Amino acid sequence: MDAPRRDDVNNENSLPHAALDSSVTDRRTDNRVSTSRVRSALCSSSDCGAGGVAPTSTSLDSHGAAKQHQFASSAVSAVLSVAQALALLGAPAPPMAPPAPPILTLATAALAPPVFTGVALPPPSQDRIIGHQSGVAVRIAANTDYGRVLDGRPPFNVRPPKNVDISMKELCVFFPNWFQNPAVVCRAFRNGFRRRQLATLQLEAVDEQYNELEMKKAGERLQKQVSQGANLIDGKDKNASFDLTAFRRAKGLQNDLTANRWLLRDEYPGQSNGATWRDMTLVDIASSVPRVNWPRGGDRLLLTECLAYAVRHPQYDLDTSHWDWIIQHHLQHVALPPAPNAPDNRDTEALARLF
User: What are the UniProt keywords, alphabetically (predicted)?
Assistant: First the structure.
């Protein structure tokens, strides 16, 4: 018998099955099992005809089977990842490399401003009473005769927001000097607050509520402010005698909790010393009180929300001339705590809740 050609020896599939030894038969069986696994994996992730089954022919000869095996192996290399192929053959997959860290640029690292949807930012106020120097807030120190609580706090003539309720706690926490204005201090006493209660709210803002000396000074300050303020409102000399109980009985509750009708002392007859409403940067106002002491819950209204917005966006240099702009364009969807039903108002509800 002629010796088989070299090509036939190399192609084990072309030899008769009887001429193959057991080791060749086992290797071919393993290859066919692997090929079947791979073909199933390919058909599950690609279009292999109707029903996801790869078209095959039962009449393929042994040489065609070898070609099919070679095609399937090539397809595995092209479609499956190394990890998937090794998993199919039972070998452990190589460890995955960690993702590359993001490339930081000036554009990605910078604080991205919010989208204003065409709403132009108003220019800064030309009537500011303080500003920034080298990025550090400069504050006007108030008169310290009536307690250290007023040190570095916004002065009495900082412009308030209009057409929105201002909670009593917002007044006490951020603007204790506003109580120099008659309408503010008289509102507090008309709605039931007493000196020690107001002093407590003012001192809590700067963690001085347990300082009895400061508490005493704050109470004396509030007593003088309400007596002089009420006399100015009634058209009397500010130093005339004053009866708080009679004043409360005559005036009743103050249900207007906005700043729409506030007047500075200098705007009352005989009190003109030249003071006018001025503007102050909102970040400076916010920084005068630790964030943990800010009003929350039923006491957090739009004034506090405006300060929080300014702190989140310091690059816009917002001041008290921008109250309305912030509220109209960025706080329209803020859910505020509901106001109580009449005859109560936010002040009387806060008094009952806080004390």
Answer: Coiled coil
